[in-house]
Amino acid sequence: MVMEFQHLLLLLWFLIPILYLFLHKFILRKKSQISKPNLTAEKPRLPPGRSGWPLVGETLDFFSKANQGCLHKFVADRRKKYSSNIFRTSLIGFPVAILCDAEGNKFLFSNENKLFKHWLPSAFDKLFPKSNNKLNTNHSKSLRKLLAFILKGDVLREYVGEMDEVMKHHLQTDWNCERVKVSDVARKFVLKLECHIFLGIENQGKIDKLLKGIEEVTDGMHSIPLDVPGSAFRRAIKASKLMREEFEEMIRQRKIDRLDSSSGKDFISHALQATDDNGQLFNEADIASHLLGALQAAYGTLHHRITNIMMYLTEHPDVYNLVLRGKSIANSAHASVCLR
User: What does the record list as coiled-coil region(s) (predicted)?
Assistant: First the structure.
């Protein structure tokens, strides 16, 4: 019995590489068939880079750096290697071009829906499901417009007072000790701020529960998208579903009670009163899915930025002293205004 099992393992070990190469050749053949009508066209100029392993590309290195919290190293290494602010790679089976400088980002975002279109891998649909409303194809687009409106500078100014209060409480509770792990406290601060602006909730127990869910979704996004038991992606799908269900219940309760804990300024309050281009109200599932996407996007971006800023301040004492001096001048100016 043991010998038969060993023979089976050896057979599998031999067949897997063959199957892998066969699939790779099949996919390349399909791609070449699709591109045959354009054989006479001029070959496009591509940025420097490499596709890595067949099918896998450079995905393993990308996710490895992401899990270590040094994703910037993935970009910096290739930027240095190719001596270019733009390079190509292959991630999760897709060819990708990465722009590394401010000029490239400005070009990208100023040409959205002109030269570029917003896109996410199909696997992400399991984490952030799209609307099933076939009668209204612009449903999701209308919600994105509403979210963009709430995040405009003029609207965000209304939150300055709340942001200040959240920051003061955060400094008193999480920074009032000899040693602080910046990455952890930055996560707590960012999510608490998001909960005020998007959800209108202040309950720390609920915020801590959401923090765990957001972390699992983030880990799943930074892993191979295999929906199998025990995988980070499977845990992310489960966490996403639980969070969306909780958001839907929160939205339904808000409808029933007609309560507005944040004076009608949070995303839920705006979404309950708004309609799409056809005059239809948004349903709970659509609002919940966009809420999760907004929370995750802001969370992943901001807490890394705060952590990096604090790291750079410790590495550059001269900059830290200038910041400290600027804060002292601002406090003195504020005190003189109050005295007058």
Answer: none
DSSP strand E in 127-237: where?
none
Residue whose C-alpha is closest to residue 288's, from 336, 261, 324, 255: 255
Cα torsion for 201, 206, 211, 216, to the nearest 10°?
-120
Amino acid at 65: K
Which of 138, 62, 128, 66 lies closest to 98 in space, CA to CA?
Answer: 62
| Pair of tokens at residue 67 | 């899990």
User: How many percent of the chain have pLDDT more than 70?
Assistant: 73
Q: Is the pLDDT of residue 322 over 50?
A: yes
Exposed/middle/buried for 13, CB within 10 Å: 0-12, 13-18, 19+?
Answer: exposed
Segments making up each domain of the chain, as ranges: 43-109, 147-339
| Per-residue pLDDT tens over the stretch 230-240 | 888 999 999 99
Q: Are 222 and 291 in contact (CB under 8 A)?
A: no
Residue whose token pair is 């590489």: 17
Bridge partners of 88, per DSSP, are 49, 97
Q: Which two tokens stand for residue 222?
A: 């930074």
CATH (residue range 147-339) = 1.10.630.10
